[in-house]
Amino acid sequence: MTQPHQVPNSGQWPYPAQQWQQSQQWQQPPAPGYGYPGPSGYPGYPGHPFAPQPQKPSGLSFAGMILGLVAIAFLLLALIVPLLGFVSLPAAVVGIVLSSVGGAQDNRSGVGHGMATAGVICSFLPLLLFFIGLVFWFRW
User: Fold this and answer.
1) What is the mean pLDDT of residues 128-133?
2) Most-buried pick from 32, 76, 95, 125 (CB within 10 A)?
3) Rounded to an integer, what is the distance from CA 39 to the centroid of its chain?
4) How many CB atoms lie within 10 A of CB 35?
5) What's the CA gap between 27 and 19, in Å, rounded?
6) CA distance linking residue 123 with residue 67, whole number of Å
7) pLDDT at residue 4 is higher than 80
8) What is the mean pLDDT of residues 49-71?
9) Do 94 and 122 form a contact (C-beta atoms < 8 A)?
């Protein structure tokens, strides 16, 4: 009959003396902020299982920024082909609308609204430059 802590048919404890000494050596504690105390109170778990995941900005604010950049590109191309300036006008207006709606969604969900702000600026700039250019075009 074997005792509860013995390996069957070997007559030895489960850990020979050398392995027991190695397992009892002091180990370096985990870095600060790594792990949390587990059920028995010792640290070493890899992290909190319910850690919050980083949230991404809404797709509308991203689309608004892209449309603002497209509007800037078409406005710069309007220096070569003047009719392309009229293509930048709807892109800028839709970019402002999408960035504003996306910024409101980001604000409600607690995500930073930097992408939406960049979209509004990138969309408003070609709109402003278009109207300034239009004024100078008819003034000459």
Assistant:
1) 87
2) 95
3) 32
4) 16
5) 15
6) 7
7) no
8) 82
9) no
Query: What is the pLDDT, as a whole number, of residue 63?
Result: 94
Q: Which of 65, 91, 83, 64 is nearest to 133 (CA)?
A: 83
For 14-29, how does the pLDDT look when each residue is reduced to its tens digit (9 = 90+)? Answer: 555 555 555 555 555 5
Q: How many CA atoms lie less than 13 Å away from 101 in the CB half-sphere?
A: 9
Please give the Cα distance from 72 to 91 (Å, whole number). Answer: 9
CA 55, 61, 63, 65 torsion: positive or negative?
negative
The set of residues, in sequence order, having a beta carbon less than 8 Å from that of 8 and lying 6+ positions away, is: 2
User: Contact, 117 vs 90, CB < 8 A?
Assistant: no
Query: Which has the closest alpha carbon to 104: 67, 64, 71?
Result: 64
Question: Using an 8 Å Cβ cutoff, are 114 and 75 in contact?
Answer: no
Give 12's DSSP letter: S
What number of other Cβ atoms are within 10 A of residue 64's Cβ?
A: 28
Contacts of 7 (CB under 8 A, 6+ apart): 13, 14
pLDDT per residue as tens digits for the range 78-100: 889 888 888 889 999 999 999 99
Q: How far apart are CA 123 and CA 100, in angstroms?
A: 11
